[in-house]
Design goal:
Layout: E1 5-9, H1 13-31, E2 34-40, H2 46-55, E3 62-68, H3 76-87, E4 94-100, H4 107-112, E5 118-120, H5 126-139, E6 143-144, H6 146-155, H7 160-173, E7 179-180, H8 182-191, H9 197-204, H10 211-226, H11 233-253, H12 262-267, H13 273-285, H14 288-308, H15 313-325, H16 334-338
Parallel strand pairs: 1-4, 1-5, 2-3, 3-4, 6-7
Helix pairs in contact: 1-7, 2-3, 5-6, 6-8, 9-10, 9-11, 10-15, 11-13, 11-14, 14-15
């Protein structure tokens, strides 16, 4: 029996997509050709999705709908439609997979999904990221230096889907058994690099520029991110939060501005010189206390966007960057902030 509904949450897109593929393959094995559809709730109303679920499809024996942005599914009438559909005991040839990059969704939606059909896909722990990269290159008959692997993790969003997509570029450029170096990573990934929360952090932590220049650069990068596949405010805030949590850790292990031993650095995720240099520079921009305050700014911005919707999302993200760069974690008033632009 194939369940009619699933709820997959969390930032690890690679494992999540693998699980979705398994469900689709089970449908194909049982029903043959299936109708696969993808909707984004930022763009498509949920009643349109429900219409397809209720009416099925004329051109295939089964339908599988993947619905992204499930965190937006919280209106009473939407949840009622979903509840009534589930109570109607839909055919196992009709499957709805709700997906969110967030860790959790509205509690009323959570209650509608059977426990066994819910799964959270967490980001890899820091100590698993480098081994995952080494193993991925090895499986494809390549090797990679430690600094090169660290650079990839700095340049690419740290979920396995994005990492696989970017790392596959090296397999097109070099013959098997080649060892990938830092210069090759920089040359290949920088050329076609999309901006992300991680490149944004690199730019705003560049202590060679003053705060006004870093803020100007940050706004430009934010605009590029918003035009890319990484446009979600959830992904931007989550990525920056990850960076500032790591900066807090750096402050904790670097007592009196002295660099700890190699073992301490490695066990805390700072093995490469590249990573050490980045967070050494960032620590000169923000103190430990300011980094903690910035994490609060990120959390409060995330909460406001979730509760108030996406109408003021762009302004709130710019305000967030202003507080991070210009105020170093202090809160600003909307009225004061508006005068900046």
């Amino acid at each position: 029996m194939i369940p009619s509904i699933y709820l997959f949450t969390g930032p690890e897109a690679g494992e999540r997509n693998d699980e979705i593929a398994k469900i689709k393959n089970s449908l194909k094995k049982k029903f043959g050709e299936i109708d696969e559809q993808l909707f984004f709730l930022q763009e498509t109303s949920f009643d349109q999705v429900m219409t397809i679920l209720q009416n099925g499809t004329l051109f295939s024996s089964a339908v599988c709908i993947v619905c992204r942005n499930a965190e937006l599914l919280k209106k009473k009438d939407e949840l009622l439609m979903l509840d009534e559909w589930l109570k109607s005991e839909p055919s196992e040839s009709t499957v709805l997979i709700l997906v969110s990059d967030d860790i959790s969704v509205d509690s009323k939606l959570e209650k509608l999904i059977p426990v066994q059909n819910k799964r959270k896909f967490w980001e890899m722990f820091e100590d698993r990221k480098l081994p995952w990269l080494y193993d991925y290159f090895k499986k494809n008959s390549y090797s990679i230096t430690e600094d090169a692997a660290e650079l990839i993790l700095e340049m690419v969003e740290n979920n396995t889907e994005s990492l696989k997509q970017e790392c596959s570029k090296f397999f097109l450029c070099f013959s098997k058994n080649h060892e990938i170096t830092v210069s090759e990573v920089d040359a290949i990934l920088s050329h076609n690099r999309e901006e992300s929360a991680f490149t944004l952090f690199n730019k705003i932590s560049d202590n060679s520029n003053n705060s006004e220049k870093r803020f100007e650069d940050a706004i430009n990068i934010l605009q590029k991110i918003r035009l890319s596949k990484n446009a979600s405010s959830v992904m931007i805030i989550a990525g920056l939060s990850s960076c500032f949590r790591k900066l807090c850790l750096w402050h904790k292990i670097c007592h009196d501005n002295s660099l700890p031993d190699d073992f301490t650095l490695k066990t805390n995720g700072f093995a490469s010189k590249l990573m050490q240099n980045q967070y050494r520079k960032a620590s000169k921009v923000w103190t430990y206390g300011q980094s903690v305050a910035i994490l609060s700014v990120l959390a409060s911005t995330d909460m406001v966007i979730r509760s108030d919707g996406t109408f003021f999302e762009e302004i709130l993200l710019q305000k967030m960057l202003y507080e991070i760069i210009m105020l170093k974690g202090a809160s600003s008033q909307i009225a004061d902030y508006s005068s900046v632009f």
